[in-house]
Each structure stands twice: as C-alpha cells, then as structure tokens.
Specification:
Number of domains: 2
Number of helices: 10
Number of strands: 10
Strand content: 15-25%
Radius of gyration: 22 Å
Largest sheet: 6 strands, antiparallel
Structural class: alpha+beta
Shape: globular
CATH architecture of the largest domain: Orthogonal Bundle
Helix content: 40-55%
CATH class of the largest domain: Mainly Alpha
Order of helices and strands: EEEEHEEHHEEEEHHHHHHH
CATH superfamily of the largest domain: Transferase(Phosphotransferase) domain 1
Oligomer: single chain
CATH topology of the largest domain: Transferase(Phosphotransferase), domain 1
Length: 324
C-alpha cells in the first residue's frame, strides 16, 4: 500500500509516489527542517523476510554509506518506518535517460559523449573502490537540474575481488538487453562487465535503440551470446568512426577483448578523432559458450582448492619445525 501525500516519515513529509520497483517504493518527499526535496526509497516489507533480498538491501545501505562522488546520487539519511527501513537520497529533478530517449530519441553526438564521459567517471570511481555497478541502463542514469548525469540505484552493485577468494560469488544481477554475455553465461562479472554495459548504453543514446531486441526476456538474454550488434553508423551515419569504434570495442562479446577498465575508455574518448575501425579487431566473434563458463567456474574452484591445500601443507611443515 503506497503512502499518501502528507504522510510523515521521521523528518520527512511524503509529497508524491514516484515508482514501485521490485525491492522498494520510491517517493518524492520534503525535509521538514529545510524544506528541500529528497527521494525516499522505502523497502518492501515482504522482501525483508527473504534472505537474498534482505541481504541485497543491506548491501546497498552499506555501499551507499561509503560512496561520495559528483556523478553518484548522494545518500542523505537512513532510517526506519515501523519495521520497514528506508533510504533518503538526493533528489534529481531532470528524470532519467529513459525519459530523454522516450521523448526525443537519439541525443546529439556531443551530448552523448559528454554523458558518456560522466558515466565512465562514475564507474571508474566505483571500480577503484572495489565495486562493480552491474545494472547500467537508461532508467538508472539520472539528470541534474543543469543537465549533467548521475548514477542512481545501487541495489545491484556489489564488491568484487581481483584475487582468488573463499567468498561465495554474488548472485547474477542485471537487466536483459544490458547485462554482459559472461554474466548471462553464469560468471560473476567484474569491471569489464560494466564496460560492456557502458557500450550498450552509449549505443542506445546514439541510435535511439538498444543493440539487441527479442520477443521475450529469455531470448533477449541469449541474444548477446551469439548475435552481432549492427554498427551504429548504419543506423545514424553522422556518428564519427572513432566514436563508433569506442562503442563497439566496449561491447565485445568476450571480456578479454573489451577495454580492461573505464580509464582505457576515457583515454580513447580523449583521442576519438584519431581512432578508426582499423585500430582494434572488431570482426564478428564466435558465440559465447555456456560450457566455457562452466569450465572457468570449475577451474576457479580447482584453483581455490589447490591454494588451500598448499596453505595447509605449509602450515603442517611450519608446525613440524616449531614442535621439534
């Protein structure tokens, strides 16, 4: 049941119901003390009884507490309404990039590049702090009053490790049409998965449509595993060759064929006028095999097991020497 306007929530007054997502209700509210507008994200009570969804909420609360960057929606407060926790977030009046695309279609080239840089800056900040965003799409990119963009909704974000770890993998997260092939295939995903999402988002900003379409979610998820995106310039001839190259490089099917990180993306955006299709291998790639993903998972497990055995053996040797 949505909260009606005028409902008091600690130091906030509900003004308007904005959305009802899978994990929370979202409201525009006002700070009683300052009168400033805020966004209230109120967790669904039923979700809090489900371990995976409750853990996801707690993860978002912890992550947003540590994040502070001009291209990320700021967390202002955290509290509870009866048994339901909520987040108070910075209110961004410009809507989302989904609204822009729905109302106007493809955006001007310069605008797309500016927004692409700002999103890349935000992702680079997250990756430097060991966080992968995992759900980059137009709905989650919000516009400020002056027309800049910020990433919002960190419900899918999670910490990652570049090293072998005993920690179990996070559940796969993302949205069909934007999630990377390796995540669809069952892999954990890392910053290169966000590089792929950045490429898909830029493709849509430049052409007005995502690179893959299908009749249902299952087919849409599978499309990036075997289909090749149509070159953006075929849909919009005024896209510069260098910019098209950057977008297609970011969207390569296999993670090792993409940019390694957002710093490399930003570096190529700085020299986009010098780039062309010949600078990178953009030939069609073979399909992404689910079996390859399972093999990688097995090798990862075997690697962890081997390291554990080596550590145990070293401990036994050490204790033997000490006890002598």
């Amino acid at each position: 049941m949505t909260l009606p306007p005028g409902t008091r929530l600690d130091g906030y007054t509900i003004e308007e119901h904005l959305a009802d997502g899978g994990e929370a209700e979202v409201y525009r509210a006002s700070d009683v003390g300052s009168g400033e507008p805020v966004v209230i994200k109120l967790a669904h009570e039923a979700n809090l009884t489900q371990p995976i969804l409750a853990a996801r909420w707690r993860r978002e609360v912890r992550l947003t507490e540590r994040l502070d960057h001009e291209r990320l929606q700021r967390r202002l407060d955290v509290g509870r309404r009866h048994s339901r926790p909520y987040l108070a977030l910075e209110y961004l009046p410009g809507g989302s990039l989904r609204t822009v695309l729905s109302d106007h279609g493809p955006v001007p080239i310069g605008q797309a590049v500016m927004w692409g840089r700002q999103i890349a800056d935000a992702l680079a900040y997250l990756h430097d702090r060991g966080v992968v965003y995992r759900d980059l799409k137009p709905e989650n990119v919000l516009l400020t009053e002056c027309g800049d963009v910020k990433l919002g909704d960190f419900g899918s974000a999670a910490r990652f490790s570049r090293w072998v770890t005993w920690r179990p993998p996070e559940p796969a997260e993302g949205t069909a049409g934007y999630v990377s092939p390796e995540v669809v295939a069952g892999e954990r995903g890392d910053p290169r998965s966000d590089v792929y999402g950045w490429g898909v988002l830029m493709y849509e900003l430049l052409t007005g449509a995502p690179p893959f379409r299908a009749d249902n979610v299952s087919e849409l998820l599978k499309a990036p595993l075997s289909e090749h995106p149509r070159p953006p310039a075929e849909l919009r001839p005024d896209i510069p060759p260098g910019l098209e190259t950057v977008v297609l490089k970011a969207m390569r099917r296999r993670p090792q064929s993409r940019y390694p990180d957002m710093a490399a993306v930003l570096a190529d955006l700085d020299r986009v006028d010098e780039l062309g299709p010949a600078d990178y291998d953009l030939t069609p790639e073979p399909p992404f095999s689910i079996g390859a993903s399972e093999l990688q998972g097995l090798l990862h497990f075997a690697g962890v097991l081997s390291l554990g055995f080596i550590a145990f053996a070293a401990l036994v040797v050490l204790l033997t020497v000490v006890l002598r």
